[in-house]
Automatic annotation (TrEMBL):
Record has NADP as a keyword: yes
GO molecular function: carbonyl reductase (NADPH) activity
Any Pfam family: adh_short
Keywords per UniProt: NADP, Oxidoreductase
Similarity field: Belongs to the short-chain dehydrogenases/reductases (SDR) family.
Alphabetized InterPro entries for the sequence: NAD(P)-bd_dom_sf, SDR_fam
Top-level division of the source organism's lineage: Eukaryota
Protein name: Carbonyl reductase [NADPH] 1
């Protein structure tokens, strides 16, 4: 990427988002915005990166809050900036010992990981430069094979799938959870899986939609990243994961790709890469 580029990273005050901003500040000639839901923590994160010799800018952003999204888009408009790179990193994960009910966990997971990501990205589209890039942080859980039902997999992976249809499928899942039928209906037992499969499906349909503007959209499974979200569990450091994501973000090849944590492009509707790449059964 050349001079005067603009990049935005969501959910960037800690975890994977923090080194993503740092790595972009090092590799990108231009402005990198660190955004976070909590303004105080976001500003503190910016100061930490500045002490390393890099100079990100800060803007508050809660992707799940429409007023916060409007404030950011209004700021971009007022600054007369165009965004070259958007990295959707903000997300949520309920661990196995979570106290919330099954439906609350499903509702919040779908809302933050899928619905808020989609709504924010759609709001940003007028401000993304033609030829720009969008990266959605995904997971191994986003592989299509993680959905048990063949019928659902066919619907979700259809090349003719529209956003309205995808949103309807996510709502169908929540209704199934409410009725305690998610297993019976073929969704499986993990809201996180459904949310990340939804993110990947959105990635591919958005890449098709934006082809005439030259905007490329990819999704990346960064690995099991050690973070607060996993309570310190994981086998990949945030710094290591950030390098893979930024490498994908800064390349200019065709979009619509699903990257594994080792940098390989994997077929979304093929065999589970945890078997043939990670060596897991």
């Amino acid at each position: 990427m050349s001079n005067n580029k603009v990049a935005i990273v969501t959910g960037a005050n800690k975890g994977l988002g923090f080194p993503l901003v740092k790595e972009l500040c090092e590799k990108l000639d231009g402005i990198v915005y660190l955004t976070s839901r909590d303004e105080t923590r976001g500003i503190e994160a910016c100061e930490k990166i500045r002490k390393m010799g890099y100079y990100p800018k800060y803007h508050q952003l809660d992707v799940g809050n429409s007023n916060s999204v409007v404030k950011l888009t209004s700021f971009i408009c007022k600054e007369e900036q165009k965004v070259d790179l958007l990295i959707n990193n903000a997300g949520i994960l309920f661990l196995k010992d979570a106290k919330e009910s099954k439906y609350v966990q499903a509702e919040q997971t779908i809302f933050i990981n899928f619905t808020a990501l989609v709504n924010f990205t759609e709001a940003m589209l007028p401000f993304i430069v033609d030829g720009g890039k969008i990266i959605n942080i995904s997971s191994s859980s986003g592989h299509l094979s993680r959905i048990p039902s063949e019928k659902l997999r066919e619907k979700i992976s259809s090349p003719n799938l529209t956003l309205i249809e995808l949103q309807s499928l996510m709502n169908d899942y929540l209704e199934a959870v409410k009725e305690n039928k998610e297993i019976e209906d073929g969704w499986g037992d993990s809201p996180y899986v459904v949310s990340k499969v939804g993110v990947n499906a959105y990635t591919f349909l958005l890449n098709r939609r934006l082809a005439d503007r030259g905007i490329k959209v990819d999704c990346v499974h960064p690995g099991y990243v050690i973070s607060d979200m996993t309570r310190g569990s994981g086998n990949v450091s945030p710094d290591e994961a950030a390098k893979v994501v930024v490498k994908v973000a800064l390349d200019s090849e065709s979009g619509g790709r699903y990257f594994w944590h080792n940098g390989d492009v994997v077929p979304w509707d093929g065999p589970d890469p945890r078997g043939y790449i990670d060596g897991k059964k």
